[in-house]
Design a protein that fits this description.
Keywords: Metal-binding, Zinc. This protein is mainly alpha-helical. The protein contains ten helices and four strands. The chain has a single domain, classed as Butyryl-CoA Dehydrogenase, subunit A, domain 3 (Up-down Bundle), CATH 1.20.140.
Length: 206
Amino acid sequence: IHWIMDSRVLIQLEEERPYLQQQNACQRITSANMFALTSLPPGMDRAEWLASNTVAFFKHVNLFSSALSEFCTPSTCPTACGPGNVVYFWTDDHGRKLKCSAPLYFDYAMSYIQELLTDEDVFPTKAGAAFPNGFIFLVQKVFLLLFRTLAHIYWSHYSEVLVLGLHPHLNTLFCHLMLFCQQHSLLEPEDTKPLQDLITALEQHK
């Protein structure tokens, strides 16, 4: 009886979250060793490694998000939400939490990240320039916003991802990002909880 109930729950969950279905979760665009890609290279400064990867992940997530922008509108996505309909609030410069549409939230997020990445005082590009105190906390915030962007895509736009045949790309990007965050302690368990079932499913299909 317990097995039957568990099976029904699993079937219901996979219908609600098609990204958990085995034929989707197993799709990747590469079999590269992700651990080697995310580990700090010997002799390299950790801040430099975090900075270069932050820039790269931002470009990849922003590009993926842009490919789906026509499907993410104020009418289709009146709130910025993730799996389980968790709602993401944008915090403005005055510390006020704003409930806004998904496209507006992620426009705020990408603009915020872009501004950080082009600020020489935060992400210095000159050789020998020092990274600011608290740099790691800014990197953590960037990866939280990138995670939320992908969480929204999985939750609200996965049907479009499937139609476009982009699910192997999405899985690969998400796996790469999550492994990098795990190795460098960039996200808290509470942050990733909405997609923990996907993280578990993807680990089973390495």
